[in-house]
Design a protein that fits this description.
By secondary structure, this protein is α+β, with helices and mostly antiparallel strands. Among the domains are: 92 residues, Rossmann fold (3-Layer(aba) Sandwich), CATH 3.40.50; 68 residues, Dna Ligase, domain 1 (2-Layer Sandwich). Strands 8, 9, 10, 11, 12 and 13 form a 6-stranded antiparallel β-sheet that branches. Strands 4-7-5-6 form a 4-stranded antiparallel β-sheet, with helices on both faces. α1 crosses α11. The longest helix is centred in the first third of the chain and has 19 residues. The C terminus is likely disordered.
Length: 336
Amino acid sequence: MMVVVLYNEPGEDASVEDHDVLVQAESVSTALQQLGHRTIRLGCTLDLAATRRQLLALRPDVVFNLVESLGGTDRLMALATLLLDALEIPYTGVRTNAILSTSNKLTAKARLYDAGLPTPAWMSSRECNREVPGTEISDRWILKPVLEHASFGMDDDAVVTAEDQAALEAMLRDREQIIERPLFAEQFIEGREINLSLLDGEVLPPAEIDFTSFPPDKLRIVGHQAKWDPDSFEYQQTPRRFNFAASDKSLLKYISQLAHNCWELFGLSGYARVDFRVDSESQPWILEINANPCLAPDAGFAAAVAEAGMTYEDAIQQIIESAARAAPNSVESTRR
């Protein structure tokens, strides 16, 4: 097949996480070539008219969609798939509707809550102010961006304790001035952090973030430094592990079912990851649904693929095949 690897072209002032997409594009392209596919890498910007012309000229069988943000914000990532939908070109990963419903964390949490799936309590003065029974404002909260991912703006200062709702709303407004993005407050769950990657609807081996090297007074969170600063303590002391105790068997079975539930609820396709926190009572809580998670060879999805006994190339081929199955008639329509 002829595959266009479409990615967001980092600008001059792009962040380190934006530049990571170049690693993904190179790795995916190399894997596709080793699998016998013809590939062309295509950088995408907000000049969608130019991208449209290039795609029509290239006439790909499938687009491998790696667009994670546009114009410096994750909130515009769906523009790429909207364009591909309009051109009726098959593409990898989740559909536009799933991108929109998972990339907005308030929308995702509301859907989880309405479906009866466990997600921590939250509040936001902008888009949603839902009260979840049993939650006190005096609990600890973590202030998270509504529309940005990759732990954008996340550090230890993001975890707060407020005396009442007014104080929490004031903390949200103050931090929004610092982060320059809309935020929401989510109840902070003390405990373990486990994530489950899914490939074509099948759950891969669960991974847990190992916080055992953290001092007792340090917050157990995977913040921005833990993801993107190799020289930081947080990056070096948050390895993932795949070995679990026998006593975790029922917990892992439960969160595997929850991951499947998320796949169905949000209409996911291709590949995804669901992040959990597990409290002291062994109750798992769904934090986020990550559509089209990072495909860099050193990232969590690739590690889960390897743990499942598959090669990176195996996973890329399966993602391509899933895209082709999802839109069997689209290739011909691009060639009229």
